[in-house]
Specification:
Layout: E1 14-21, H1 27-33, E2 41-48, E3 52-53, E4 56-65, H2 69-81, E5 86-94, E6 96-99, E7 103-111, H3 114-131, E8 134-140, E9 145-150
Parallel strand pairs: 1-5
Antiparallel strand pairs: 2-7, 3-4, 4-6, 4-8, 5-7, 8-9
Length: 151
């Protein structure tokens, strides 16, 4: 009789949460969602609206998303969850109008050890920047507005 077992390191991590949202992002809630008793590390990232862009004062950013954005962010989370040593992944991007200091992107990853957790968070952020169809409409202090590419 043959038995096949899958080691924990080979199984995909749990995707605790992934999506595009309109409500404020809570990174502590994302960190709680990825908690795992076997994890030795939880790493988070919080992307916030800053007060400047290329030397101009920013007062707000309105993020808008393509209808496929939710599917794309789920796909990025699932792909990342395949990395070895991870326990759970959570990632959300907020759309709508955000003020300076508001959180636009929240990421949390739990892993067996810190190195894969840091790497996974970095990978998620980079993939979001490359692939997520979300656009920024920046409002500047002088009253002008400007569209820029993906978030």
């Amino acid at each position: 009789m043959t038995h096949t077992t899958e080691s924990r390191e080979q199984a995909a991590a749990r995707v605790a949460r992934a999506g595009v949202i309109r409500e404020p992002v809570s990174v502590p809630e994302l960190a709680a969602a990825v908690q795992d008793r076997a994890a030795g590390a939880v790493v988070t990232f919080e992307g916030v609206v800053r007060d400047h862009d290329r030397g101009r004062e920013v007062t707000a950013i309105a993020y808008s998303a393509h209808p496929s954005a939710d599917e794309v962010i789920v796909r990025i989370a699932r792909e990342t969850a395949e990395q070895s040593g991870l326990r759970a992944v959570a990632v959300v991007h907020r759309i709508g109008e955000l003020g300076v200091g508001d959180t636009a992107l929240g990421v949390a990853v739990s892993a067996d050890h810190r190195a894969p957790a840091f790497e996974a968070v970095r990978d998620i952020v980079e993939e979001i920047k490359k692939r997520l169809p979300v656009w920024k409409h920046q409002l500047f202090a002088d009253g002008t507005r400007e569209w820029s590419g993906c978030a």
